[in-house]
Amino acid sequence: MKLLKNKYFNIVWTALRIWLGYQWISSGWEKITGDGWVGSTAGTGITGFLNSSLIKASGAHPAVQSWYADFIKNIALPNAVTFSYLVAFGEFLVGISLILGALTVVGLIAGALMNLNYMLAGTTSTNPNMYTVAFILLFVGANAYTIGLDHFILPILKNFFTKKSDFNQISS
């Protein structure tokens, strides 16, 4: 544990964070600038993806669990346009967060949740790798974002919320 949190590993964690951010930003940008995810064709890309996931929910050993297939049928597909925008811009924003090291923990959690949903939908590709890297970076904590904008952002946020809570105590 001490070895993983050693300050000399910060460059390794930064490199992993930037690699992960690049994966997200390039995937999101592809969706934003391509067809089927945003604009007049929004929803068609995700509908195709989700329908292929439903096919994987059948058979003796389904890759998609029945409860997740129900989520796809009853929530995701009827709201395909909304989910399409959430996925495209969510991936892009997670990428920006991780590359810049800004609100890194939020970006790592959002990325891990997206990866989890992709895996629950029956895809593997790089999703297990990205999911694992996100958890490693969450595990090493502040060392994952020591080199990044969080070095400046987090003290400001901490100060803001500390002052706000001090004000609430005074006014009580």
Commentary on this structure:
The chain is an all-alpha fold. It has one domain. Helix content is 70%, strand content 0%. Helix 2 (44-55) runs antiparallel to helix 3 and helix 5 (104-120) packs antiparallel against helix 6 (127-139). The protein is globular and about 50 Å long. The mean pLDDT is 90.
Which helices and strands, and how do they pair?
Blueprint lengths: L9 H24 L10 H12 L10 H11 L3 H21 L3 H17 L6 H13 L10 H22 L1
Protein name: DoxX family membrane protein
Subcellular location: Membrane
Pfam family, one: DoxX
| Helix residue percentage | 55-70%
- SSE pattern, N- to C-terminal: HHHHHHH
Low-confidence stretches: none
Computed Rg: 19 Å
Tally of distinct domains: 1
Amino- and carboxy-terminal Cα gap: 42 Å
Please name the defining characteristics of this protein:
DoxX, 7 helices, 172 residues, transmembrane, membrane, DoxX family membrane protein, transmembrane helix, mainly alpha
Short description:
The protein has 172 residues and is an all-alpha fold. The protein has one domain (7-171).
